[in-house]
Amino acid sequence: MENNQQPNQELNIPQVGQILTGTVVSVTDEEVLVDVGYMFEGTIYKDHLSNQKVASAKDLVKIGDQIEVQVTKISHGDDNNILLLSRKDIERKAIRDRYRDDLVVDQSITAKVKKDVKGGLLLDYHGFELFLPESLISLNSLSPEEKKALVGQETAVRLIEIRSDRGKDKFIVNRKQLQYEELKQQEKTEIQAFAVGDIVNGIVSRI
Known about the structure:
Elements: H1 7-11, E1 19-27, E2 31-37, E3 40-45, E4 66-76, E5 81-86, H2 88-99, E6 108-117, E7 120-125, E8 128-133, H3 144-148, E9 154-165, E10 168-174, H4 176-192
Parallel strand pairs: 3-5, 8-10
Antiparallel strand pairs: 1-2, 1-4, 2-3, 4-5, 6-7, 6-9, 7-8, 9-10
């Protein structure tokens, strides 16, 4: 009886996008070789090993480690099939899953300003994009230069709204409210420091 199965079908080659658990069998500064079963080994280049910037792949894994990897490319050859692997998306998803519970309305968090856009600022919170409307950036009006200077800085914000847009959550945050609350707390602390009979200097603000 004739066998109509192709060699690739018999070997059950992993598919692009598939997540596998493998064992590290070799590590150099630039790449990691992983045994993922299926009688195949796959390669992870250093830049695809983590979202962290490292000098050597040896800083992240060692021989014998069990790691999760994702198949990103399969190169078919006459004698073998080369699997290219990555851990970046898996790592990014794990981080997002860990911090998603922080994103609830009225929760205060610290996020990094990543981009100055029309109408406000875009912030990053462990892979989640937040939008800070221009009117909620500061108690004081900011010049375009002052607004742009916030890019790259970390800042405290409060999540005030979660909108669903085409199945994707959009997070709206407020920085101005936290500044206001901090100012009021400072005023309260200063007032509580006064005692009856204290002599203080002041400025006339209204007549």
